[in-house]
Amino acid sequence: MKNYNSILCVDDDEIILLALRRSIQSHFKERFIYETAKNAEEAIETIEDLFKDGIKVVLIISDWQMPGMKGDELLIYIKNNFPGIASIMITGQADEDAKKRVLNEAGAVKIFDKPWNANELFQTIERICEEMKI
């Protein structure tokens, strides 16, 4: 049976991006399609491409500090343009105002500080899946 649900990870630091994807993929195995993007613009393009292919993005996990559009702006854009995609922010540098924006305006489920706790991240993803009935 083909999987039509995906998780998108966004971070401009390729090492962190790959570590995040690998960690989630090793835990959730073939339950999702795993995609990555190095910036907000690439993330938006990836979401549009996946939707065209009939693949639902159920979760976006984004860094805050990236060149161009910051993570809080990206997650607000996602909420306004792609309702139904849950979001999590993982950051090492976001200020309190940015964190409040992510929670209040983007409706993020949770914000994790780097380095993140993998088990707590997995539990948060499981909770999102339960709420979405995935």
In short:
The protein is α/β, with parallel strands linked by helices and 134 residues long.
Mean pLDDT: 94
Strand content: 15-25%
**How many H/I helices?**
5
CATH first level: Alpha Beta
- CATH architecture, by name, is 3-Layer(aba) Sandwich
Task: Provide the number of structural domains.
Answer: 1
The CATH topology label is Rossmann fold
First-residue to last-residue Cα separation: 15 Å
Question: Rounded to an integer, what's the Rg over CA atoms?
Answer: 13 Å
Unreliable spans are: none
Number of strands: 5
Helix/strand structural class: alpha/beta
Strand order of the largest sheet: 2-1-3-4-5
Secondary structure: elements and pairs:
Layout: E1 5-10, H1 14-28, E2 33-37, H2 40-52, E3 56-62, H3 71-81, E4 86-91, H4 96-104, E5 110-113, H5 118-132
Parallel strand pairs: 1-2, 1-3, 3-4, 4-5
Helix pairs in contact: 3-4
Description of the molecule:
The protein has helices spanning 14-28, 40-52, 71-81, 96-104, 118-132, and strands spanning 5-10, 33-37, 56-62, 86-91, 110-113. By secondary structure, it is α/β, with parallel strands linked by helices. It has a five-stranded parallel beta sheet with strand order 2-1-3-4-5, with helices on both faces. Helix 3 (71-81) runs parallel beside helix 4 (96-104). The radius of gyration is 13 Å and the shape is globular. 34% of the residues are buried.
